[in-house]
Design brief:
Length: 297
């Protein structure tokens, strides 16, 4: 414990002595984590929207005109159940459709309570037994008498999946580049401290100090820099995301019938990711500096 406290005090002293380079390191890591956080925000919400639609991926919903009676819909249901490609057919009343929409709207579902009448149509939901048959079933469903519209999400899901993969690849490339840059900056900061304490380090080695006893303050310095960067960047990204929810949350809900990922959920996961990345970058930058500029392997 005494060794740890000594190393911690030395690390804090080193940070105080090199305020300029410490600030540069914190700024570099923070900027990297903020950019990564923005990619994370986009990807998570695209994935959420895609998963919401995927739930209906092998479902084809057939909406009926208002003059189609419940008895006629039940007859159509029985007929469609006989199709070879169909697994199940479920009748969805306009009341049930409204309840589902309220659930998808989440906390804003109460807004639908003010409707003077239910504008949603009755429908049947056809589940196909294989996704490659969905196109064929959808085309057949369009010919049902009394059908007003057929809702099939295949094209939308494929586009969302493609966009998600593109953002994921871009995020990985940007993240690797920024991690390398941040690690180099942290390494240079620690290097200055090593040079400033070179005489002291030589004396410590002569009196028998172990390699890890010498390394510890520098390692803690890098970890502290990374931790500070993680905390700062987490707060900034949370504020940005809160602003995004406030500005476009309603529009996204209206367009996709799904809300943005809650701020609390995203912030909780993001802060741990940032802490892991920030501390790792700081520690790794410190180790690189020690291996290159000290003979303490």
């Amino acid at each position: 414990m005494n060794k740890f406290m000594y190393s911690l005090k030395q690390a804090l002293k080193q940070i105080g002595r090199n305020k300029g380079m410490t600030f540069t390191s914190v700024f570099a890591i923070t900027a990297m984590l903020i950019i990564l956080g923005l990619f994370f925000m986009v990807i998570v919400n695209i994935n959420t929207a895609a998963e919401t639609i995927k739930n209906d991926y092998n479902n084809i919903e057939v909406f009926f005109k208002d003059d189609v009676t419940d008895e006629e819909i039940k007859t159509i249901q029985a007929d469609v159940e006989e199709w070879d490609q169909v697994d199940t057919v479920t009748v969805r009343t306009k009341e049930e459709a409204l309840e589902i929409l309220k659930i998808r709207w989440g906390d804003n579902g109460y807004l639908l309570d003010g409707l003077s009448e239910n504008p949603l149509p009755n429908s049947i939901v056809i589940t196909v037994d294989a996704l490659d048959k969905a196109d064929q079933v959808a085309a057949q469903a369009e010919k049902i008498e009394g059908a007003e519209d057929v809702n099939f999400y295949k094209d939308t899901v494929e586009k969302l999946i493609s966009a998600t993969k593109g953002f994921q690849i871009a995020a990985i490339i940007v993240m690797i580049f920024l991690i390398i840059v941040s690690t180099v900056v942290v390494s240079n900061t620690i290097k200055l401290t090593v040079f400033n304490r070179s005489d002291e380090i030589v004396i410590m080695k002569y009196v028998g100090a172990t390699n890890w006893f010498i390394r510890a303050p520098f390692l803690l310095e890098g970890i502290i820099i990374g931790l500070i960067s993680a905390i700062v960047s987490s707060g900034i990204v949370a504020l940005i995301y809160a602003g995004v929810i406030k500005v476009i949350g309603g529009e996204v809900l209206a367009i996709l019938s799904t809300s943005l990922v809650p701020l609390g959920f995203l912030a909780f996961n993001l802060v741990w990711i940032f802490i892991a990345l920030g501390v790792s970058i700081g520690a790794w930058g410190s180790m690189i500096s020690m291996r290159r500029f000290l003979d303490t392997k």
